Amino acid sequence: MSALNRLQRAFAEDLWGSDLKHLQGLIPDGRLPAVRLLQVYRNNFRISLTEALEAVYPVMQRLVGEDFFRYLIDRYLRNHPPTCGDLTQFGDRMAAFVAGFQPAAGLPYLADIARLEWACHEVFHAPDDATVDLDALSQMPAEDLAGLRFHLGAACRLLMSDFPVYRIWQSNQAGGDEPTTIDLDRGGETVLVLRPQWTVQLWALQAPAGRLLASLCRGEPLGEAVDQALMLDGTFDLQSLLSRYLAGGVLIPQFDSIPSSIPRHLHPAVPEGAGS
Amino acid sequence: MNPLIPVKPAPADNGAIPVDAGIGLRSPHIEALLQTRPAIGWLEVHSENFFGNGGVPLHYLMQAREHYPVSLHGVGLSLGSTDPISQPHLRLLRQLIDRVQPGLVSEHLSWGAVSGIHFNDLLPLPYTEEALDHFCRRVDQAQEILGWRLLIENPSSYLSYRHSTIPEWEFLAAVAERTGAGILLDINNIFVSAFNQGFDAETYLKSIPASRVGEIHLAGHSRKQFDDGELLIDDHASPVCDQVWSLYRRTLTWLGPKPTLIEWDAELPPLPDLVDQARLARNCLNRASTGRRETCR
């Protein structure tokens, strides 16, 4: 181990506050005693990473209050510190961490709020999808459409919760209304996170829409997913909903998922000019 | 939109950073920037904020890039670390360079990670022969993989090490000499470190080889009074102070005019205030290039 490596390891111990003796011997007192100079770095480390997570989890912070949030972040940081120099991935295990965080056990919906906020963060940074060829889709025979499978757009996330997470999220926006009472027993919500026009939006889905997307996300073909959604509400206008999802890049058709009877020009693997 | 700020036309340039004043672009300002297109020479962004393979940040950066040359300023490569250099990080930076076609790419004379844990800070290196050899090897590695000549920035620091044997200015100049890298001279950092560590800022600045300096940074700091002493904290949360402006003007007489960036990272002012700071720097640059010595504020 090189001297430089030993020094950096000692510095790390100091930042974590676990060994304050070793490094201090290597640092002369300056305008402040060495121990106080190191405190500046300990603070920077904690504050900068806390701020990074505050930016990702503002609703969670509002729900638990600043002091509790800082305590939670301190514990999170010790368990899941950043492992790369790009902080975009830092905080990715918050939902699982919160779910097992005993002091927050009184807020059973907190982990789902963390999942929702992480979904927003991911959608913000997600790559852009190629545009869906809506014309090709509209030309498909009905029986092929029924067998077609879809996946969610790269910049979309679907979140199903046993709690009214959308209402909780909505009523805890910065500068929002006065606190409202939300009845946790009123049932769960399914939320779609997406970013039309480069702005992250949350849509609370009605039950049939949620069921439709959930079925499609599980890999079921469109026909079956539609049947399941209509079981919840036979009058639901799925046609216009589907058009909206397709136009908005929420659903991406997997053209290679349909049987070989499909017109060749719909298959993306066909070389240019070889199809219709 | 501020009617006093002339709208800058799209440049027909190759993306090179001009010898002019630029601003560090932070996300809360991007909308105002795109709408008003203030007359500033160039923009600098933190590279890591745009490492996504698409997404909202990159979308807006590419729009800004249509109107301004851009410099990519890294804060997370941790060049001074003894951990192996991060190949994924370099790949992402390389991808960003290919997309943005920046005029400059810079990183810091510091370390930020050990044993796989990143501390998200620019931590001080000891200035020893061992650290110099190590740092130069890492700069060589990064430059080779990126296919790009880096600028290396002096950090602000609050402490020194007993076993350091080389003054920071000699260390920085040696890195440039050995690796071919350029220097990003942060005048505010020198001012802050000089106060905190008790060295002479002018000695530092006069020792820097002018031909190596590719960029200058200016920023605000704060003075923090404790029971047991006083420190300058490099918080980038206020305008550039008079003493740093003065040091900057003198630096320009020693180095000649260099592309100069105003950094403001916390407690962000409205964009026009930042543009005003850039205008002050531009005045200094204009006067430095015409050789006039009168005050430029």
TrEMBL record, chain A:
<protein>
    <submittedName>
        <fullName>DUF2063 domain-containing protein</fullName>
    </submittedName>
</protein>
<feature type="domain" description="Putative DNA-binding">
    <location>
        <begin position="7"/>
        <end position="98"/>
    </location>
</feature>
<dbReference type="Pfam" id="PF09836">
    <property type="entry name" value="DUF2063"/>
</dbReference>
<dbReference type="InterPro" id="IPR018640">
    <property type="entry name" value="DUF2063"/>
</dbReference>
<dbReference type="InterPro" id="IPR044922">
    <property type="entry name" value="DUF2063_N_sf"/>
</dbReference>
UniProtKB/TrEMBL annotation, chain B:
<comment type="similarity">
    <text>Belongs to the UPF0276 family.</text>
</comment>
<dbReference type="InterPro" id="IPR036237">
    <property type="entry name" value="Xyl_isomerase-like_sf"/>
</dbReference>
<protein>
    <recommendedName>
        <fullName>UPF0276 protein GCM10011348_35030</fullName>
    </recommendedName>
</protein>
<dbReference type="Pfam" id="PF05114">
    <property type="entry name" value="MbnB_TglH_ChrH"/>
</dbReference>
<dbReference type="InterPro" id="IPR007801">
    <property type="entry name" value="MbnB/TglH/ChrH"/>
</dbReference>
